[in-house]
Amino acid sequence: xxxxxxxxxxxxxxxxxxxxxxxxxxxxxxxxxxxxxxxxxxxxxxxxxxxxxxxxxxxxxxxxxxxxxxxxxxxxxxxxxxxxxxxxxxxxxxxxxxxxxxxxxxxxxxxxxxxxxxxxxxxxxxxxxxxxxxxxxxxxxxxxxxxxxxxxxxxxxxxxxxxxxxxxxxxxxxxxxxxxxxxxxxxxxxxxxxxxxxxxxxxxxxxxxxxxxxxxxxxxxxxxxxxxxxxxxxxxxxxxxxxxxxxxxxxxxxxxxxxxxxxxxxxxxxxxxxxxxxxxxxxxxxxxxxxxxxxxxxxxxxxxxxxxxxxxxxxxxxxxxxxxxxxxxxxxxxxxxx
Length: 338
Ligand code: AMP
Ligand code: MG
Description:
Layout: E1 2-7, E2 12-21, E3 24-34, H1 45-67, E4 76-82, H2 86-103, E5 107-111, H3 112-124, E6 130-134, E7 139-145, E8 148-154, H4 160-170, H5 177-185, E9 197-198, E10 201-202, H6 205-216, H7 221-247, E11 251-255, H8 262-275, E12 278-281, H9 291-303, H10 327-337
Parallel strand pairs: 1-4, 4-5, 6-11, 11-12
Antiparallel strand pairs: 1-2, 2-3, 6-7, 7-8, 9-10
The structure holds adenosine monophosphate and magnesium ion.
């Protein structure tokens, strides 16, 4: 069983392949290209979509070569159905429909957030973790219960990756800002910034506005980068610890683009160590948006018979993690109870 996955929710257009034999999934590889906005501006959905449309055939070709598979051997075509930027989502959905029709193979819509979780589980062996999903467009602390991934805490405004990118732009750094901030933070000292945790939810907007104000007033960029990381990541670690205490789980899975940040990993590691919990971090190659994670989530959905008729294959701009019926997990849960 070979599944082709297409990612196109925001800045990345990716194609990846995952195969399954005797119940064992294997990542075969893929290729991705990222739209980088002009310096000083954020992602422009229409321009990102044009980038994806221009490159989709090349990305497919290179993905086939990297994974060493033939298009004719594909059994299932999966695509990121949402959540995401509509113009970008439409390019991926159209490309997927075209491929499924040409190959005469079933079409599956994968939820992008669930794909980040499932690729994290596949690459780390996490089984029943509190998931810290941190990316450019999403910030959620999630745990599985009764057929769905439930959201225990989330951002009330911008996502953490978006917050870091916004500050980086204000500081004249090139996109994506997260890695630049991580590098600059190494030479920084602590400045107090607003720490906003409301119950289990987080807010990053005021924190970024304050950091931008301090920058204009002449604070050192290294100090602000250090303090942004310390504050944002401490907020996340606090909510994650409470989710662990509430659910009684003893495993944390860190996934999404911001998961490659060493300081975030360190803070979560300290918290987990103190509680006797295990931290698992998604493999770096699959932390940011990619086609492989969609191929894997698509394979799971296909096995749970979640196949789309072409007329139902529209995009879902706002598709929350907790709205997805995870048939593959409930079936597993059922068989475990039998
Ligand atoms: P994704 O949306 O999952 O592709 O993740 C992209 C986001 O991850 C962007 O907002 C990046 O700035 C952020 N990111 C990537 N690497 C790092 C890093 N080392 N530290 C913090 N944020 C990062
Ligand atoms: Mg993502």
